[in-house]
Each structure stands twice: as structure tokens, then as C-alpha cells.
Design brief:
Elements: E1 4-15, E2 20-22, E3 27-28, E4 32-48, H1 49-53, E5 61-64, H2 77-94, E6 100-106, H3 117-135, H4 144-154, E7 166-169, E8 174-177, E9 185-190, H5 200-206, H6 216-232, H7 236-255, H8 266-282, E10 287-290, E11 296-300, H9 305-316, E12 320-323
Parallel strand pairs: 5-6
Antiparallel strand pairs: 1-4, 2-3, 4-6, 4-7, 7-8, 9-11, 9-12, 10-11
Bound molecules: ligand DP6.
Ligand DP6 binds at residues 13, 16-18, 26, 32, 115, 117, 155-157, 200-201, 204, 291-292.
């Protein structure tokens, strides 16, 4: 069998997955809703060992994918182990036993603080499914819900990366959702690019210790219903207010956990504060959100392109900006 190659995008949650009822399979405590970031992608290539070693069998090995459009890429020992464990789980599911070379890379730098687990695990799941369907085809092997559920077990947020532009995730797998906003413009303002002290997997465990955690599920569910309605009725301001409150809710969980921890930095607060002032001055602006990190994500409607470009220029003088504009 020759190599197979697959790629998957990252996504940004507007209603956040934070907290798990079961750590093992990444079962979320609450519903989440994301917008897919088609411009931020991971590519994975899978090659059977026999094709590059002349033997059948052997261990799975990870290596960075060298491709002209990819940024140089490295994965910590721990990151590699997690990736290979997910691949092993997929092999067992398909009843595949031979060894593979797994190469992966992002089209964005791995040192910029943008999450890559969503795009990485989704791309790995898609590449594995493509390869294993050739070796030992399964009736469910191309079913998107099944693939989303499998991807979830590698990293929760990756199950939403199988759909574009909107994905809803409640339990086992994510599903596509349709809103009148099909193409949004995305900017990530990189205020901090060093490695996080608390990983998002760790954050999922810690938030259960927050005194604000009771009630979190109800708050997320309520905001999801409200956001669904405001996006459907194209009430942008209302959508902004819900998305704003939602990421603060998650960051309040971090700050009130035991022990408390924080991702926000002075740079994040600067971007938040000024973007809020932008809204007040113009009566319009972007949706603003943050993940388990210091960087700030902005989403603009296509008709706001000029405004977004001007703001981008402004932020570029101070921070790195990754943009789909
Ligand atoms: C803050 O999917 O990275 O980005 O399931 O442990 O791999 P694991 O966690 P992960 O959590 C992402 C959390 C978040 C919010 C979100 O994407 O919904």
C-alpha cells in the first residue's frame, strides 16, 4: 500500500468544552459549539513500514512531515506518545497490526501558542481511516459520526474539526450545524507564544475544583441556546455578548480552581480592553474569545473586512497575528 495523506483544520469554540465526566474517552460535561478555522491545518501522512523498510511488521514511528508548504515542526516525547497511543487505538479498532511511519506537520508555527491538538488528532484519525479502509475495510469506516467519535477519544475538541464551518458536540460525536454566517474572518492575536504551564487536558481536571463549577453545565447550555438563536437571527451584537460572557466564565473557572491558575496576561487584557473600546466607539466589532491560553481570537463578518484589516494592521505593530483575511 502506498502512503495516504489527509489534512484537517483547527477550530475555535464559542461555547467551550471545559470539564469531563469521564477522562478516559474525553466525555464532555457540557455542550460545545465551534467555528472551524480552515486556514489553520495539520497534514498527516501514513506509510506502512513495508514500504519504507522492506519488511512487514515493526513499531509505529512518528517523524515531522517535510513538505514545502509546512512550517518546521517538532513534537515533544510526551506529545509523540499521545499521538502514537491514539493511532494504536485506531489500529485495534480496524484490526490492523502492521507498523507505520506517521509524519505530521502544521501550516502554522507550533511555537505560537495556537492549539494544534484539534487539527492534529482529526487529521490523524482521517489519515488512519483512509489507510485502514484499504487494508481491512469496515462498514462504519467512512461514517463521519464514527470518525468524529474516534477522534474525540484522542483529543476532545478534535471531534468538531471534521465539519465546517460550524460544529456542535454534545456527547459521543460532533455534528454539523448551519447558520447564516458561513464565512467568518478569523484573527488570532498572539500575545504569548511560550508553552503553557497548565495543558488544556490538565485544566479539564482542575476546573472541577472551582467553587463556580456547580452551575457551569446549566450556564453553558443556556448560552448555547441563546447563541444558536442570535446567530440564526443574525443578531451580531447579542452573539458578541454571549461569546464574551462564555470565555470569561471559563477563565473564571481557571482563576477559582484549587489551586487557582491563569492564562491571561497583560497582553491579553490589552487586546480585550481595546477591542471592547472599539465596539463602544463603532457600535460594531468582532466576536471575541479565548481558549485555554493567553491569545485572543477575533471573528469578523465578511462585510466588516475593511474594519478587520485596519485593526489587524494596528495589532501587527505590537503582536504576531495569524489571520484568514
Ligand atoms: C479550552 O480538546 O485540548 O480549547 O480532550 O484533553 O485533549 P483534551 O482537551 P482539548 O480541550 C480544549 C479546551 C478548549 C475549549 C474548546 O475547544 O472547546
Amino acid at each position: 500500500m502506498p502512503s495516504v495523506i489527509a489534512s484537517a483544520p483547527s477550530n475555535i469554540a464559542l461555547i467551550k468544552y471545559m470539564g469531563k465526566t469521564e477522562a478516559a474517552g474525553n466525555t464532555p460535561t457540557n455542550v460545545s459549539l465551534s467555528y472551524t478555522l480552515d486556514h489553520l491545518r495539520t497534514t498527516v501522512r501514513i506509510t506502512p513500514q513495508s514500504s519504507f523498510r522492506g519488511t512487514v511488521g515493526g513499531k509505529d514511528i512518528w517523524a515531522p512531515l517535510e513538505k514545502s508548504d509546512q512550517v518546521s515542526f517538532s513534537l515533544s516525547e510526551q506529545g509523540q506518545q499521545r499521538f502514537l497511543r491514539h493511532f494504536e487505538m485506531l489500529k485495534q479498532k480496524w484490526g490492523v497490526t502492521q507498523g507505520f511511519l506517521i509524519e505530521s506537520a502544521n501550516n502554522f508555527p507550533s511555537d505560537c501558542g495556537l492549539a494544534s491538538s484539534a487539527s492534529s488528532f482529526a487529521a490523524l484519525t482521517l489519515a488512519a481511516a483512509q489507510a485502514f479502509q484499504k487494508i481491512n475495510p469496515q462498514p462504519w469506516g467512512e461514517n463521519l459520526r464514527t470518525l468524529s467519535s474516534l477522534s474525540r477519544q484522542g483529543s476532545g475538541s478534535s471531534c468538531r474539526s471534521l465539519y465546517s464551518p460550524w460544529a456542535l458536540w454534545q456527547n459521543e460525536f460532533a455534528e454539523p450545524l448551519v447558520f447564516p454566517y458561513e464565512k467568518l474572518l478569523h484573527q488570532a492575536i498572539i500575545v504569548e507564544s511560550s508553552k503553557k504551564e497548565v495543558s488544556s487536558s490538565e485544566a479539564h481536571k482542575l476546573v472541577s475544583q472551582s467553587s463556580l463549577f456547580p452551575g457551569r453545565v446549566a450556564r453553558a447550555e443556556k448560552r448555547f441556546e441563546q447563541l444558536k438563536h442570535s446567530l440564526q437571527s443574525q443578531d451580531w451584537r447579542q452573539s458578541f455578548e454571549i461569546v464574551w460572557a462564555e470565555f470569561w466564565d471559563m477563565h473564571a473557572l481557571f482563576a477559582t480552581s484549587r489551586p487557582p491558575f491563569m492564562y491571561m496576561t497583560a497582553g491579553s487584557v490589552k487586546v480585550l480592553e481595546e477591542t471592547l473600546r472599539f465596539w463602544a466607539k463603532n457600535g460594531d466589532g468582532p466576536l471575541i474569545t479565548m481558549d485555554a491560553g493567553a491569545n485572543v481570537h477575533l471573528l469578523w463578518r465578511p462585510d466588516q473586512k475593511e474594519m478587520a484589516a485596519a485593526q489587524e494592521k494596528y495589532w501587527q505593530d505590537q503582536f504576531r497575528v495569524f489571520s484568514s483575511l
